[in-house]
Amino acid sequence: MTGIGTESSAMESARMTQSEAAGEAILLDGKAFAATIRTRVADHVSRLAADHGIVPGLAVVLVGEDPASQVYVRMKGKQTREAGMASFEHRLDATVSQADLLDLVRQLNVDPAVHGILVQLPLPEQVDTGAVLDAIDPAKDVDGFHVSNVGRLGAGQKAMVPCTPLGCLMLLRDHLGSLSGLDAVVLGRSNIVGKPMAQLLLRESCTVTIAHSRTRDLAEVTRRADILVAAVGRPGMVTGDMLKPGATVIDVGINRITEGDATRLVGDCDFASCREVAGAITPVPGGVGPMTIACLLANTITACCRANGLAEPEGLTL
């Protein structure tokens, strides 16, 4: 990873940050950081157009009318266009056949104007999600879900990195500098966040533990963590007494809680109690969420540069 955080001997300062337990935790502002990433993306898009006549293109496929998915797709399209990139949106009926969806993916695979392909999940039950994701050209798989990219990431080779774990790593490196030697616990073992997050932390020379619903004495495990990444989809599961004082907490959870007529977003961490113990923590909303879309744009730029044999953008790639 180049240009993300510092690679100097920041180990000691990171240790000092971890030990500062007094007062409220520092808020890691993912919204502000994501804006910085999008600015870097837009600058690189301008240079690609000026120097090579290339406009990176991102194709997003939405099947059905899931309200949350519609919001995500609309936001992705807006930010893609704001960065100066080409945005291609394909909206399909919820009853679409798997064969027709696969045909669309194959068309996008060979479209030279499309450098990144994202199929919005979840997909309807008549469609085999794995088959669709595996049909995407790995070089255009900006979500990083293709088995080829999963394997390459695990082997320490060049790969498209899933957007949410990449955003988490950027936040961690920006705050802590070097992560080498730190104890990291990833709470959650999904293919989308938990497993790739653990792989990225291993690359940073962390000592990594993956914890989950079957982990015995979970609080004992999490209290060892200098870095805790919570990605289980259970609101408020992590409480302050489960943290090591001064730990850096990345809350990936986005859970909708209904209270009377109002709905609000909360993370997997009980924010109030965790902020009293942690050294730094991401808020929900405004933490990891904005970083995910910013990293999607960054991955599209990376895919475009690789497809054209150009240098990859510094600070936006692994």
Summarize the structure.
With 318 residues, the chain is of the alpha/beta class. Helix content is 41%, strand content 16%. It has helices spanning 11-19, 30-52, 67-82, 98-109, 129-135, 147-154, 163-176, 194-203, 218-222, 271-277, 288-307; strands spanning 26-27, 57-63, 86-92, 116-119, 183-187, 207-211, 227-230, 248-251, 255-259, 262-266, 280-281.
Explain what you see.
The chain is an alpha/beta fold and 318 residues long. It has a domain at 11-29 and 162-290: Rossmann fold (3-Layer(aba) Sandwich), CATH 3.40.50.720. It has helices at 11-19, 30-52, 67-82, 98-109, 129-135, 147-154, 163-176, 194-203, 218-222, 271-277, 288-307; strands spanning 26-27, 57-63, 86-92, 116-119, 183-187, 207-211, 227-230, 248-251, 255-259, 262-266, 280-281. Strands 1-11-8-7-5-6 form a six-stranded parallel β-sheet, sandwiched between helices.
Global outline: globular
Strand order of the largest sheet: 1-11-8-7-5-6
Structural class determined from secondary elements: alpha/beta
CATH architecture of the domain at 11-29 and 162-290: 3-Layer(aba) Sandwich
Q: What is the fold named in CATH at topology level of the domain at 11-29 and 162-290? A: Rossmann fold
Largest sheet: 6 strands, parallel
Q: State which percent range the strand residues make up.
A: 15-25%
Q: What's the CATH superfamily of the domain at 11-29 and 162-290, by name? A: NAD(P)-binding Rossmann-like Domain
The count of DSSP E runs of length 2 or more, i.e. the number of strands, is 11
